[in-house]
Design a protein that fits this description.
With 79 residues, this protein is mainly alpha-helical. It contains five helices and no strands.
């Protein structure tokens, strides 16, 4: 817990500082939503100001949706 507090006090983001906690393990993430929600998610999470790990997930989702929904991908200029 001391390392975690040190990390926070030194400006390390909470989601990164958690690495020192005992529960740091690989997890699986399951997400559901309608297309409107996915479009909003991608608009928010594909930006350069998003944490790299989240952006990687969002970009992969965007690629999968573009494959399956080419008309929507074209309309949103997801080239």
């Amino acid at each position: 817990m001391t390392e975690y507090r040190w990390a926070l006090e030194n400006g390390i983001a909470k989601e990164c500082a958690r690495m020192v906690l005992p529960m740091q393990t690989m997890t699986r993430l399951y997400m559901t939503g309608d297309i409107r929600s996915w479009i909003h998610y991608l608009e928010v999470r594909c930006g350069e100001d998003t944490q790299l790990e989240h952006r990687k997930i969002a970009l992969e989702i965007k690629n999968k949706l573009a494959e399956r929904l080419p008309v929507i991908a074209e309309a949103l200029a997801w080239s």
